[in-house]
Amino acid sequence: MPSDVTEDALPGGMPGAAGEAGTPPDEEIPLPEELLEAANVALGPEVVICECFARGGLQHEPDIVPTDEKVAMLTRIAECGFRRIETTAFADRGRWPQFADAEAVLAAMPPREGVQFRALCPDPPAVRRALAALERGRGPEEIGLVVAASDGHSQRSFGCTRAARWEQVGEMARLAGDGFVLVGAITVAFDCPIDGPIAPERVLEEAERFVALGIDRITIADTTGSATPPRVRDLVGWLHGAMPTATLIAHFRDGRGAGIANCVAAYEAGIRHFDTALGGTGDDPAQIAHGGGPSGNTSTEDLAMLFHAMGVATGLDLERLRATGRAAEALLGRRLHSRAVRLGDDEGG
């Protein structure tokens, strides 16, 4: 139950015995769980989960998913009640053939009231493509701009230093203008596989640079999956104190099995926006086949179900979400990493 909702504030007050004042003797008394759900509906979603299956979940898939199947999945995802959905990337078609159909995917997804469709834009040409799509009548409502918190990862990901990358991001923000909601993402915010642990001061520096560009939605990404709940609470609490007007977004990988725990720690530290992917997708299936193990995103189904059990409203239809998770498994032709999807299976006991 949200901390500012007391039992006395629940619809109708707390149920009393039949015949007590205010409770007709023959009226069915709602169960406490029903009261909690009614309170959550009245308050609206307390957390916003952005579903990233269609972009972050598919980016390492070796087989190209046909455009019509992506659109069908995105439609199912939207019908679960998501308010933010990552749809595609305007990435180099040669390097990222999975997203060569970015314009076609967006064109097939009509706008939905209260829903923002996001596209990743890794460079200035990508922003120009997003603008062109907007001019043709169907661009994304939101675009993501990414930097790395370490020099080593900046060189590996973008082929340039952090300073040069920030020049690119500044150009991208100027190109975008007021055509989109801009989201800045800071990768390797906890540890870099090349440069090692990242100082919190570095993350704050990168976040403040985004704010200076007018970007106050900032994603904190645990790219290596090495964060722990105490580190998450410390970093998020510190950033909130330094930047009280910024909207922070948690994006945690689950390679070491800590994704859910880190999301809860982020929630406890004040974050209300989360990036996740159906089935914990986002890893490289070839690595798994060779014993590398899963390194995907935090599972949407599992986090949504945990929040529900905690009394935290997500605004999502959990049964529809579980069915969508099973559809993702059918689409990719393998069992994914969601535990919530398995609930009720005979093999689960």
Automatic annotation (TrEMBL):
Regions of compositional bias (Low complexity) in chain numbering: 9-24
InterPro entries the record matches: Aldolase_TIM, HMGL, PYR_CT
Pfam families per UniProt: HMGL-like
Region (Disordered): 1-28
GO biological process, one term: ketone body biosynthetic process
SUPFAM superfamilies: Aldolase
Residue ranges occupied by any Pyruvate carboxyltransferase domain in the UniProt entry: 47-322
Keyword Lipid biosynthesis: no
Keywords noted in UniProt: Lyase, Metal-binding
Origin: domain of life: Bacteria
PANTHER family: HYDROXYMETHYLGLUTARYL-COA LYASE
Family of this protein: Belongs to the HMG-CoA lyase family.
Protein name listed in UniProt: Hydroxymethylglutaryl-CoA lyase
Species of the source: Roseomonas acroporae
